[in-house]
Amino acid sequence: HVRSRRQRQMCIRDSYSFDQFSNQLIEIINDLKIKDYSIVGQSLGGHIAIQALRLLNDPPKKLFLFGTPPMEKPLTLSPFNEVQEMGLLLESELNNNQACLLRSSFINNPDHFEPFQIASILNTDPKFRTQFLPFVLAGNYKDELTELENYTGDMAICFGEEDKLISKDYYQNKIESLPLKVFKQSGHNIN
User: Fold this and answer.
1) What is the DSSP letter of 88?
2) How far is residue 123's CA from residue 74's CA, in Å, rounded to a whole number?
3) Are strands 38-42 and 154-160 parallel, antiparallel or unpaired?
4) What's CA 148's distance to the chain center, in Å?
């Protein structure tokens, strides 16, 4: 994690989009003049990495995605299971109980509690929750299946067998041509 003054300023936004996040990733890679590297993306971070792939001057040699179902375009909701708690992602303000419910949808082992997880959810910019998902649902993203099919580096797409958020059927039916690794007894965070 690199946090320059400019990068901290980049975290304060009027709006949120895949373009904004992928441009931040590209800027960091370019600023650090990284040439031989890998990208590990988990959940939303994996989607951001996929969105940035074709825009990078020197794409990563390896790409590891965890809990990131590559979204086709147009978006069908089939990559994601219907999980009631996920509706909280659209709420601008959450109380502690709601943050705990949202956290439970990400974690396979509810007994494994990290206080920073709740704090991170509560400290999320409310504009992110109210703006980002509607932006995606409006189709403002690249077809990630196509992006990955065109990627020439090594990649691994990892799925936790107990993931409550992501559809196992989607992985099995949509990404047949991509390398999928299934982890037993693990959830969205492969824990």
Assistant:
1) G
2) 31
3) unpaired
4) 15
Q: For residues 79 and 69, is the Cβ–Cβ distance under 8 A? A: yes
**Residue whose pair of structure tokens reads 């992602």 in the numeric block:** 89
| Element containing residue 66 per DSSP (H, E) | strand 62-66
Q: Round to the nearest angstrom and report the end-to-end CA distance of the chain.
A: 21
CA 152, CA 41: separation in Å to the nearest integer? 17
Token pair belonging to 181: 């690794």
pLDDT tens readout for residues 1-21: 444 545 445 555 677 888 899
Residues 6 or more apart whose CB falls under 8 angstroms from that of 164 comprise 81, 83, 105, 187, 188
Contact 158, 67 (CB under 8 A): yes
CA gap 4, 155 in Å, rounded: 29
Q: pTM of this prediction? A: 0.85
The pLDDT of residue 191: 54
